Amino acid sequence: MIDRYNRDRLTLGRAAHELDWYTHRIPRDRVALRSPARQLELGPELPSDFLSIPPLEETPLVQPRLLRTATVALVALLLVGTAAAQTAPTPRKHHPWAAFSPGAWRQARLIVQVFDKQGNLVDWGVTERTTTLEKVDDDGVTLRVEESVWVNGTWRDRPVQTVKQGFYGESEGQKAEVKELAAETLTIEGRKIPVSVREVRLIDASSKSLQQSTIYFNDDVPPFVLKQTTTIKDADQKTVLSEKRTTVDGLQMLCLVADQPYSAAQVRTTTTHAKGTTVTVAYASSDVPGGVVHECTKKVDKDNRLVERSVLELIDCDAARRNERPSRRTMPRRGRNWRLRAEREGADKADELTL
Predict the structure, then answer these.
(1) Domain closes at, from 71, 86, 101
(2) Burial classification of residue 75, based on how many CB atoms lie within 10 Å of its CB (0-12 exposed, 13-18 middle, 19 or more buried)
(3) Number of domain units in the chain
(4) Secondary structure E strands in the chain
(5) Does residue 327 sit within a domain?
(6) Contact 147, 123 (CB under 8 A)
(7) Over the range 24-49, which residues count as b (16 or more CB within 10 Å of their CB) and which as e?
(8) Could you give the CA distance from residue 42 to residue 18 in angstroms, rounded to a whole number?
(9) Could you tell me which residues come within 8 angstroms of residue 256 by beta carbon, excluding any fewer than 6 positions away?
(10) Quick one: which of 266, 276, 265 has its CA closest to 298?
(11) Final residue belonging to a domain, choices 86, 106, 133
(12) Residues 104, 121 share a domain
């Protein structure tokens, strides 16, 4: 027992001696272990040849240099970490167009029905829209939008528009202010998904209205933005003009676009405002330019009467990505002459009615 005690005591003394020699450079014949509670001293009873530490004047100044280098590196890492925490990453991956190369396009058909107060259908219309990605830069995306409207049995083209969007959906004249919030966990179909939370404020330069959104996202779970709440206030930022809540209710749903299968998420959006409520159920895929594959919308007034409803269907698309995925077997794709087929079908129906 005594030998074990002495051996442990000598080991403790050697470790303490080396530690204090490198840090405090205390004299060799005295070792001190310091603590807030007590101070234990091991005197010169240690054997003189137990430690082979050279005298101070014979030791090259290597350790202080290493200490200074480590300190500088630590400070640099802390500065980089602080800068990363203060600057929010650009949400390019979250935008439905930013992941594609210029030249990617989509063609969609929108059918709208309008009802009167008695619930009778009083008007309807069809719009076919072709959207092409022209440019992606650090400020957002630039889109070319071509629309045609079916009126009195013929297609009428609207003027071509060029639309620029920021990665947070901001338009020209709007500036995004981003703030990182504490991380949370969402549950979708019984699956717990950790999400980062970000607050985005968009202030319109002309109307001075404020649009404030809280975005919940996960970079590994498409469609990445899994929940979002948005509030729009007037110029005084006191009166709420509208509130919108978007949630992902389902993942990995199967959708077809021009006979091509895509994995999509079911997204539900509810918007409330002074005139009523708008409910949208959509299927969105991160593999499709623009994201939305199919979308149904219903508008009701403040008395819950049906005012308008619409359905949007993606007819065809060309998903030219920057990072091409491995090729896969696909079913034959329809051509881009869908509009000509619609004209022929409309003409055939007109002939049948005439006969």
Answers:
(1) 86
(2) exposed
(3) 2
(4) 31-34, 39-42, 105-115, 121-137, 140-151, 154-157, 161-165, 174-188, 191-204, 210-217, 225-233, 240-257, 260-273, 276-284, 292-301, 306-318
(5) no
(6) no
(7) eeeebeebebeeeeeeeebeeebeee
(8) 13
(9) 262
(10) 276
(11) 86
(12) yes
- CA–CA separation, 42 and 21 (whole Å): 14
How many residues are present in the chain?
355
Instruction: Quickly tell me which residue has 């058909």 as its tokens.
Output: 109
Do 139 and 195 sit in the same domain of this protein?
yes
Q: Which two tokens stand for residue 218?
A: 């996960």
Same domain, 346 and 246: yes
Quick one: 343 and 251 in the same domain? Answer: yes
pLDDT in tens for each of the 355 residues of the chain?
A: 445 445 555 454 554 445 454 444 444 444 444 444 444 444 444 444 444 444 444 444 445 555 455 554 554 444 444 443 344 555 788 899 998 999 999 999 999 999 999 999 999 999 999 999 999 998 899 999 999 999 878 899 999 999 999 888 888 777 888 999 999 999 999 999 999 999 999 887 777 788 899 999 999 999 999 999 999 988 777 788 999 999 999 999 999 888 889 999 999 999 999 999 999 999 999 999 999 999 999 999 999 999 999 999 999 998 754 434 333 333 333 444 444 445 555 555 444 444 4
Statement to judge: residues 116 and 51 lie in one domain = no
Measured from the Cβ of residue 176, the count of other Cβ atoms closer than 10 Å reads 18
**Domain assignment of residue 10, yes or no:** yes
Strands (E) across 25-86 are located at 31-34, 39-42
Structure tokens, 245: 């809540």
Identify whether residues 112 and 243 lie together within a single domain: yes
Please state the φ and ψ torsions of residue 18, each to the nearest 5 degrees.
-65, -40
Query: 211 and 240: one domain?
Result: yes
Please check whether residue 163 lies inside any domain of the structure.
yes
Q: Note whether residue 164 is domain-resident.
A: yes
| DSSP 8-state assignment for residue 321 | B
Domain that residue 40 falls in: 2-86
Q: Whole-model pTM above 0.85?
A: no
Q: Are residues 208 and 315 in the same domain?
A: yes
